[in-house]
Write a structure and sequence with these properties.
Layout (H helix, E strand, L loop, with lengths): L2 E7 L3 H12 L1 H8 L2 E8 L16 E2 L3 H4 L6 E4 L7 H10 L3 E4 L2 H18 L3 E2 L10 H8 L5 E7 L2 H13 L3 H10 L8 H4 L2 H15 L9 E2 L7 H9 L2 E12 L2 E12 L11 E8 L3 E8 L3 H21 L16 E2 L6 E11 L4 H11 L4 E6 L7 E12 H12 L9 E5 L3
Parallel strand pairs: 1-2, 1-4, 2-3, 4-5, 5-6, 8-10, 10-13, 10-17
Antiparallel strand pairs: 7-9, 7-11, 9-10, 11-12, 14-16, 14-17, 15-16
Helix pairs in contact: 1-2, 1-12, 4-5, 5-10, 7-8, 13-14
This protein binds NADP nicotinamide-adenine-dinucleotide phosphate.
Amino acid sequence: MKKINVGLIGFGNVGSGMIKILQEKKSFLSNKIGFQINIKKICDKDIASKRSISVEKNLLTRNIKEIINDPQIDIVVELIGGIHPAKEYIIEALKKGKNVVTANKALLAQEGRELFAVASDRGKNIYFEASVGAGIPIIKSLREGLVANKFYSIFGIVNGTSNFILSEMSNTNCTFNQALGEAKLRGFAEKDPTLDIEGIDSAHKLILLVYLCFGRLVNLNDIFIEGISRISLADVNYAKEMGFVIKLLAIAKKVRDELEVRVHPTLIPKTHLLSSVSGIFNAIYVSCDLAGNLLFYGPGAGQLSAASAVVSDLVDLTKDIQVGLFRPTLDIVVDKSIRKLRRIDEIESRYYIRFMAVDKPGVLAKISGVLAKFGISIASVTQKERRKTQVVPIVMIIHEAKEKNLRQALEVIDRLDAIRQKSVAIRMEEV
Ligand SMILES: NC(=O)c1ccc[n+]([C@@H]2O[C@H](COP(=O)([O-])OP(=O)(O)OC[C@H]3O[C@@H](n4cnc5c(N)ncnc54)[C@H](OP(=O)(O)O)[C@@H]3O)[C@@H](O)[C@H]2O)c1
């Protein structure tokens, strides 16, 4: 049987998972695809520590050159994470005529333009199925399964840590910090969870989804990013009482000839499919012209789940190599009807707003007066528990308003004597 030789860089969590699958499913896979995927070399900084899977000692090296410079290696799998030296290793590998598989969303989001250009220049491919939603086959589905579609929008719950925290707050009535503590305890949050809870990881994944759906590789700076660290238990509960759930959504939405690209906490109706995506699960809700509305759902992380996607890329590349197929731009087509990206100020949305006001007659009238001045109309208002002389929450849902107008109105309202805390505004989506 013909062999495809693979060099793995990064024998960590996902790397070991990949080796495990290739070892345990060796004949299953080769029977399926008619080729043998052979691990020729594994490079890691540490080749002494015991891993979850054992390999022959002579496969291991600390020297990256043993992979990059080996002419017999057809595919390089980068699973070390981070920007440097992952970027340099991938470029070197492409220049040496190798195809590449990576799960590194941060790298592709930040350096994708250069990496894809080098790949294209060299007639090689970079596959990255594990980079969004781990084992959920979202990349292949967008690229191949939905190839005839025009996309309208993507709504993604693509960060398991944030989704776990928000679910925990809602289900157990705990604060953000308590939920984060629980996530750390259960291994669902890193020691430094900033990338996850501040929405940056979601933005990295959104960049890749937007690339696949709309053909634009947007910059991180082009995305409005707001994390979940300021979400209070009170807002989670008030939203729940009104029939909504708060989720950290990665959103790409085509509005006429503009594209909105944003990541932020969002109120969605309890009845929507995405509301039931709890804990560390991920889901991507895609709307397109032919296939309609689709939901891709599953564990968004995990050794075997991510490695399953890496192996699927290996199999695809193996097939490409056998037939001499080169996909210069991964069949990605630019949606030319999009004229520009819409700035966050310009978006129109419904909003959940919470004011903390002194419980005095006339306060509500003053607030609604300011909102009206900025052309903002109220859909519903609830004044929570009445306590004389104390500060009480006033919770409002407002009809579609321009973000810029709302911000200006809130600035004015926050300066009113009766308002005792900065107002909270959370965007809403019907999805
Ligand atoms: N874990 C998941 O569920 C998951 C899901 C989807 C995508 N991903 C992506 O998959 C990639 C790998 O994640 P992971 O969880 O497997 O990470 P990991 O467990 O930290 O594994 C990375 C491995 O690479 C080694 N390494 C780091 N720098 C190196 C270098 N310069 N040369 C050689 N080896 C080096 C690390 O060694 P040290 O530990 O000594 O630094 C470690 O053994 C990341 O891009 C991640 O975002 C992960």
